[in-house]
Structure prediction request, 243 residues.
Amino acid sequence: MAVRTPVRFVMLRPRQAANVAAACRALKNMGFAHLVLTEALPGSTEARALAYGAWDVLDAAQTASSLSAAVADCTVVAATSGRVEENTLTPRQFAETLDRTAAGGPAAVVFGPEDNGLTTAERRLCHVTVRIPSAPEQPSLNLAQAVLVLAYELSMVGCPEQAELRERVSAAEFETVMDALRGALVEIGYLNHANPHAIMAELRDLFWRGAPTAREIALLRGLARQVAWAARQARQTGDGGRV
Prediction:
């Protein structure tokens, strides 16, 4: 499951057609297809072969006159850099926060020329910087390798074992159910009437970590109602309603 944000991959002044072709294959491997080049490269049979199975991505690559033009409509622009600097994100950190920061997108991941990378001025046009951690003995990656790493992390975000993406209920809905559950647990004596907050706080954290869906919240609401009803019935029959 990939990020929901539409992502384009932007290559500034790529030097080698073969690298672009190989990057197209990496993009299609991970389910992406939007490539923008600031300079079109003359192709060759040898280079084209490196885009095996992803010729549609290569042929559909767009050109833009500048970085500014390539990312004009994007809400998040990420510069890729091999420089060790403060406040850089790993590809995973970038992927995990993209949907929230892009707020509907689209977003761009920008790669500089193979020899020198992005200029300082170009990095300033970007909102965040992403660096792929690598061994100091060999810190630089081939352009297509870097594209593959970023595309992989963006394709896998939020899916340990390909878990289904779950939409959370609103905070207001969650709190309404937690209030009902608190009242029911006080009714049966599970929570201390004088101080129910400490244990209830732990229960709230437990349920919130589970990212309950609307259906699951409805189940909890029904559970709270049934527990409260059972407590009232027990009191009416003289059983005390406490456990």
